[in-house]
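Inverse folding, one chain.
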C-alpha cells in the first residue's frame, strides 16, 4: 500500500478509535467504566476521613468512586476529541493525495472494519451472516475504488484569454 493510500486508511482507523473511546466515555456499561467502578468499590474503604482546616471531613466511598468515574469519563472525552482532530488531519491529507472517492472509500472501509473489531472485543457485540456479506461487499468496493488510477487533466484554463 502506497503512502498516498495509507493516510486515508489511518484516518479510518483513527475515526473508529475515536468512536470507541466516545462510547467508553459515555456508556455506563462500558468495560472501562464498570472495571473502574468495581475496583474503586473493592479497594476504597467505606468512609474516608480527611483532616482539613482543623476539622475532620467524612467522605463516603460512593462519592469518591463517582468522582473517579467522572474523571475517567472526562479523560476519555478529551482523548476522543484529540483522536478526532488527528483523524480529520489525516483524512484531508489522504483525500488530497489519493482523490476524494478513493480516500473516502478507504477511510470508510477501515473505519467499518475496526469498528467491528472494537464491537466484538470491547462491547461483546455479535456479527450476523448478513452483516459479514455486507462487510465483504464494502471491502470489495473499496478495493475497486482504490485501485483506480487518477489521470492528470493538465491545465483546464488552456485557450482562455488572460484578463
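Residues assigned per position:
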Amino acid at each position: 500500500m502506497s503512502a498516498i493510500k495509507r493516510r486515508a486508511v489511518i484516518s479510518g482507523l483513527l475515526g473508529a478509535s475515536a468512536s470507541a473511546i466516545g462510547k467508553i466515555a459515555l456508556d455506563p456499561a462500558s468495560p472501562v467504566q464498570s472495571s473502574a467502578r468495581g475496583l474503586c468499590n473493592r479497594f476504597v474503604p467505606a468512609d474516608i476521613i480527611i483532616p482539613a482546616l482543623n476539622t475532620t471531613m467524612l467522605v463516603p466511598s460512593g462519592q469518591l468512586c463517582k468522582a473517579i468515574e467522572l474523571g475517567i469519563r472526562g479523560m476519555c472525552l478529551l482523548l476522543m476529541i484529540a483522536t478526532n482532530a488527528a483523524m480529520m488531519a489525516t483524512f484531508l491529507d489522504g483525500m488530497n493525495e489519493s482523490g476524494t472517492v478513493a480516500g473516502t472509500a478507504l477511510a470508510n472501509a477501515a473505519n467499518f472494519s475496526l469498528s467491528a473489531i472494537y464491537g466484538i472485543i470491547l462491547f461483546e457485540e455479535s456479527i450476523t451472516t448478513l452483516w459479514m456479506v455486507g462487510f465483504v461487499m464494502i471491502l470489495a468496493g473499496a478495493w475497486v475504488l482504490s485501485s483506480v488510477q487518477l489521470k492528470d487533466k493538465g491545465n483546464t484554463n488552456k485557450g482562455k484569454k488572460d484578463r
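The two ends are 44 Å apart (CA to CA). The chain has two domains: 1-97, 99-155.
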